[in-house]
Design a protein that fits this description.
Elements (H helix, E strand, L loop, with lengths): L1 E10 L3 E6 L3 E7 L2 E4 L4 E5 L1 H4 L9 E4 L2 E2 L2 E2 L2 H12 L7 E10 L5 H13 L4 E6 H8 L10 E6 L4 E7 L2 E8 L3 H16 L1 E2 L2 H11 L10 E8 L5 E7 H7 L1 H16 L3 H10 L1 E4 L8 H9 L3 E3 L6 H11 L10 E2 L5
Parallel strand pairs: 1-9, 9-10, 11-17, 17-18
Antiparallel strand pairs: 1-2, 2-3, 4-5, 4-6, 7-8, 10-19, 11-12, 12-13, 14-15, 15-16
Helix pairs in contact: 4-11, 5-6, 8-10
Length: 339
Amino acid sequence: MLLKKVLGIDLGTDTTRVYVKGVGLAVSEPSIVAFNNRTHRVVAVGFEAKKMLSRTPAHITALRPMSHGVIADFEMVREMLGRFLDRNDLPWSWVTEIVTSIPTNLTEVEQKSVEDLLGEVGASRVHLIEQPLAAALGGRLDVHQPTAHLIVDVGAGATDMAIISMSGIVVSRRLKVAGHYFNQEIIKAVREELKLDIGEPTAEETKIAIGSAVPVGERLDIAVRGRDVQSGMPREVSIRDTQVRFWLARPLKLIVEAVKDLVESAPPELVGDIYKNGMYFCGGGSLFRGIDQLIAKEIGVPVRIIEDPLTCVVRGTGVVSEDIGASRHLLTNLSKKKA
């Protein structure tokens, strides 16, 4: 039992991760809740709920309560996070202080919603840090120097990008084009072109197995099973990597254009730094095959994938949680202590 524990939380659209001060990453679970519509009770969260996605009976709904990086269903997120924080492998304490990452450009209402949520799951104090800044800290970049670092966090629900200099965000952009958007494009194309209905898990598997932003030099294909649009019967089709690359060309172009807009809006001296330092990609979308090559070609600067890109944001909240006093200048807002 502890007098006080300090947690770092990355509340993502796809995955929720929790860092415990002095321990490290303690929770990494899908941000999914399974809800019984008859009893009005949550029946599963995390990995257990993910197994039910697209496979539930009528009275069970498996849903993602986070959408585009923000809270879409307050009650469901509270229930999900409460269960994650109540696990036996997390230490119990009288006081809990939480550092959490938030998307850039959140409204005051959305920030207040995050603080209220964490207060309801037991936080006595909440500190907010913007995601690109947390990602830079987690990627061991020296954000305190007067030089620019361009961070692009391609998550599941949104792509968050920012130019960071002297411990702060100079300019930033956020667009709702990311991993889940890619999946929906695949689902739509398979239905329209191949006349087959597939679910999100199958689209995700297809994207990971054969998806790429640029030609990969070898032919890839995957067998996909689903429901025939016309007959309603089960059917299997083969999908090639060239098809997936064509289907995802438009959303990838949207990300490229957003990065270009971000660079164009930055002060000239910082653009010079970016040319020298390159760009840093993180998030699950940074693992999409060839995305770094595509961006490097379009923007004209080197692109580096941050080490362990899936966890760099929560590692950044962990850096802050280890010494909050020394990191106060990095925080977006400090909530007052609860009475």
